[in-house]
Amino acid sequence: MSLTVKVMIGMIAGLILGVIFNMIDSDFINTHIVGGFFGMIGKMFVNALKMLVVPLVFFSLINGVTGIGDIRILGRVGGKSFVLYLTTTAIAIAVAILLATLVGPGQGFNMEGVDTSGVTGKEAPSVWDVFAGIVPTNPVAAFANGDMLQVIFYTVILGVAVLMLGGRSKAFVEGCEYMNELMMKVVSIVMAFAPYGVFCLIAKTFTEQGIELFGPVLAYVLTLVAALFLHLFVTLMLMLKLFTGLNPFIFMQKMRPAQIFAFSTASSNATIPVTLRSVTERVGVDNSVASFCVPFGATINMDGTAIMQGVATVFLANVYGIDLGLGGYITVIAMAVLASIGTAGVPGVGLVMLTMVLSQVGLPIEGIALILGVDRLMDMIRTAVNITGDAVVSTIVAKGENKIDLAVFNDPNAGLITDEDLDIDEAAEAELAQYAKPH
Question: Domain range holding 97?
């Protein structure tokens, strides 16, 4: 049984058990089993994924920059990915606003009885602050805090310096290549525990959220899910087919493990190790491209989050009876694209970004209380859309640079994690044992 099948079984089992526990509503189950044991295992699994992100991105990106070997090509890869990410985000929110306008969720909604306490807004940063924040004042602090844009910027600068030093950097490059291979092996170890981590995360989410929360905002939920699926299965797949000629069905099959991880963790950053492995070992994108595009996309590419903002804005405008007009919707699109650049890919960040958008178009921030209950489940779906967008752009850029292995892409078994990934190399073990003997 492949890891993907195991993870899907864990996800389905967690969903079923979570719904059952939600209906039982036992204090013992909620406190000790769900909040205690499930919460502990789920948090440990997500922490383990986050543990891998910074070192994996650093060593992989160093290898990517040195592997490209030409600073001009590196600039071309960065420029293409940046333009594509912003384009997909703008398309995503524009389609979401159009669909929501046609459906009209929120019309006739009654705000009475809705608790709006505890909903606070956040001021939108200026475009200058967003770009100025890319450069770290302290690289060590950027690595410690997991600020991915700053980590990427510093690592790219370091990689360029390595190229400029030429042959003197050979030992450093070889060390980074080994560390990158080592980190990918650690990814295999962590992912071996994925079915249990996903089971606990999903069971905890559905026990706490239940399904009765969807009733009052069903029109919003259905519109949002429809917009997310439209972007995932139509917009992104059309872009993939148009720019690469690759089979979208094979691509989606290859990305399924990363999508499941994104759904269960609701964090683009935590899913970086899995996305990076899927894009390189399953899809066949060269590490020199994937190591830049994937973490870059996890930070600035928020297609799913942008879609949520578009649908939520139309929903709340209908609830309050406010006509935003064309100018208001253009402002929403611009704000969503800007906010996606400077916002981290962590759970719940969509609501923070939404407060910025609502403030700019004059909608009451308190309206967010309407969608708070269902946002966690919606966050899971839109994160899966986010990382799929990262993978599509990475593949498009790689195809344009002739940095994709089509044999790997067309091989259904390429990159599958098996028990062999966890086996110990006996020859290497014997060699290491020689060093352990007293001399």
Answer: 3-416
Instruction: Let me know if 164 is exposed, middle or buried by CB neighbors in 10 A (0-12, 13-18, 19+).
Output: exposed
In a domain, 395, yes or no: yes
- Return the amino acid letter for 93: I
Domain count, the chain: 1
In a domain, 427, yes or no: no
Residue 422 lies in a domain: no
Give the tokens for residue 76: 């071309």
CA distance 43 to 340: 25
In order along its 439 residues, the chain shows pLDDT tens digits of 777 788 889 888 988 898 888 888 788 888 888 889 998 998 898 888 888 888 888 888 888 888 777 778 778 888 899 899 989 988 998 899 999 999 888 776 665 545 545 455 455 566 677 678 788 899 999 899 877 778 888 988 998 899 888 888 899 989 988 998 898 888 888 888 888 988 998 888 888 876 666 666 888 889 999 999 999 999 999 999 999 999 999 999 999 989 988 888 888 888 888 899 999 999 999 988 898 888 888 878 888 888 988 898 888 888 888 888 888 888 888 877 776 665 555 555 677 778 778 877 888 877 787 787 777 788 888 889 999 999 999 999 999 999 999 999 998 888 776 655 656 666 656 666 665 555 5
Q: Rounded distance, CA 150 to CA 433, Å?
A: 40
CATH at residue 142? 1.10.3860.10
Is residue 438 assigned to a domain?
no
Which pair of tokens denotes residue 154? Answer: 């510093």
